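Reader question, answered in our methods column.
A reader sent in the components of a multi-part assembly and asked whether the whole thing could be modeled at once rather than chain by chain. We filled in our standard form and ran it. Here is what they sent:
COMPLEX SIZE: two components
ENTRIES:
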Amino acid sequence: MKLTMAQKILQAHTDQEITAANQIVQCEVSLVLANDITAPLAIKSFTAMGADAVFDRDRVALVMDHFTPNKDIDSAEQVKFVREFAREKGVTHYYEGGDCGVEHALLPELGLVAPGDIVVGADSHTCTYGGLGAFATGMGSTDVGGAMALGATWFKVPPTIRVEFTGSLGEHVTGKDLILFLIGQIGVAGARYKALEFCGPVVDRLSVEARMTIANMAIEAGGKVGLFASDAKTLEYCRAHGRMGAVALAADPGAEYDRELSFDVTGMSPQVACPHLPENVRPVEELADLAVDQAVIGSCTNGRIEDLRAAAAVLRGHKVSSRVRCVVLPATPGIWKQALKEGLLETFMDAGCVVGPPTCGPCLGGHMGILAGGERAISTTNRNFKGRMGSLSSEVYLASPAVAAASAVTGLITHPGKL
Amino acid sequence: MNYAGKAHKVGDHIDTDAIIPARFLVTTDPGELGANCMEGLEPGWIKRVAQGDVLVAGENFGCGSSREHAPIALKGAGIPVVIAHSFARIFYRNGFNMGLILLEVGDDAARLHDGDELVVDVDAGRIENRTTGETIDCAPVPPFMKEILNKGGLVPYVKAKLAAA
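And here is the structure of the entire assembly that came back:
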C-alpha cells in the first residue's frame, strides 16, 4: 500500500498493519506534552490510573507557558502542583521561568522534535510540529495522562487532504497568509478528523519556521495534523538545534488522498481573518481604515525570530500610533536573546512597543494585553473566537507580523507595503 | 441508559472558549467550571439549565482548544448528554474520556428545537422528541470507543492496562 505522510508515520509506530483510513491503531509515542492549564488535570488522571512513574522521564515535557509568569494565586497554585509532580517523577523537561517559552516554539528549539516522531500534547496547537514532519496532535488531559503512563495511545488513521501551493509569494506575503487563505477556502470544519499534507513549489521554498506557522493552524480548519515532508532544510534545522540523526520523510508517490487541492498564490494579498471565526478571511485591502486599539505580535503561531524580523523591518523608523498598544512577546528566551543581539528589541522600543516575556498571555485572554468592551485587536495569534482576548464585545483580527506591525503604526488595518 | 430533559439549543462552531473561557481555567473543580459553563457564549446562560437537561448543537461543536475543562464544565453544569450535527475531534475524545455522552445526528439536529422535551436512549442510539413526537437515530459509537466506555472510561481502561503490564 502507498502511504500518505500520516499513514507512514503511524505505521512506523505500530505493530498493526495499516490498510485503510479510519482504522484504529495503537501507537508508541515519541514525546508527551502538557502545559500549566492542562497538566494539572493530566496529572490527576495519571494518578487516578494508578500510575506511579512516567513511561520515560526524558520524553515527557511540562511547559508552564500559558498564565506565566503566574498571573494570580490560582495559576501559581496550578504551576506549583505541576512543579512538585515534575520533581517527584524526575521529569527532565520541566520548564518555568528563565528557561521557559511558548511550548510549540520551545520544544523544536530544544531539539525535542524530529521528522517521523509522534507527539501528543494536551494543547490543540501541538500540530505545529507537523512543520518538521512529525505526526503531532492535540488531545485532552486524560488522554495525555494515559500517554504519560503508557508511552502509547490510540489513533484513528486520518484520511488526508493534500494541499498544493504553486506560483510565487509576493512581498509581505507569508506562511501565515497561506494558512489563513486555506482556512478561508475550506472553513473551520473543512479538515475535521483529517490530516492536511502541504506540498508544492511554494512550500518547498518556505523556511521551516514558516512551515510551523502553517502547521500550527491546521487545527483551525478542524485538522488532526498538518504535515510537511522533511527536506534538507528540515534536517539542517534539526542539526542546528541539537537533534542528530533526523531523516528525510515524504509521502509515497501514488498514495491515496481524500481530497486534492491546488492553489496558485501568485498575486495573493496578505490575508486577515475577521471576527469571530478563523474562516472569515479577507484580503487586507478590503479592511483598510478599520481602526485598531491593540496589536499583538507573538504566540506559538508567529512569535519566532523570522516573525520578529518581519515586524521590526516594518516598524523601523516609524512610531506606533498613540491610539494603539503594540505588545511584542518573543516566544522563547532563545528568540528573545537573538532579537536583542540583532537590535530588533531596540527597534520595537524606539517605535513605542511594549516588549514582554515569552508567554501565551493575551492570545487566550490570559494576561498582558486583555481587551476592554468594544476594543479591537490585530494579532498574529491563531484564534479570533468571541471574547478570546478579553471582553465578549471585543474583536480580534488575525494577521501576519508584518500586517500587525503596519497596522500598529497607522492605527488602522494596513498593508505593510503602504507604509 | 435513558436520559430525559429539556433541550437547550446552540449554533454551529461553538468553540471551547465559548463553553468555558480561559480566565476560568485556574481550577479543575467540576462545580466551579460548571457554574461558568457557556459564559463565553452568553453571560448567565447556565441559569436556564436544570439538572439532566440536554444540549443540542450544530456543526463542529467543541472546536478550538484541547481543554478538557470544556466537557467537565458541561457535566458540572448538570448536562449529561450533548447532541450535535457533528463534533470537533479533540472535544469528541475528551467527552468520552470524561463520561459525557455525545451523540452525532447530522442534519437531524435541525429537527430538535430549544425547549423540546427529549428522551435519549443511549444504548439504542435513539432520541425521542416528546414535543414533536419525532424519533431520531444517532450515528453509532465507534466500536473501540464503546470498549473504552464499557470499561468505564479511559482512566479505568489505562488502569487495567497498567495492572496487566
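What stands out: The longest helix of chain A spans residues 73-89. The longest strand of chain A covers residues 160-166.
Send us your own complexes using the same form.
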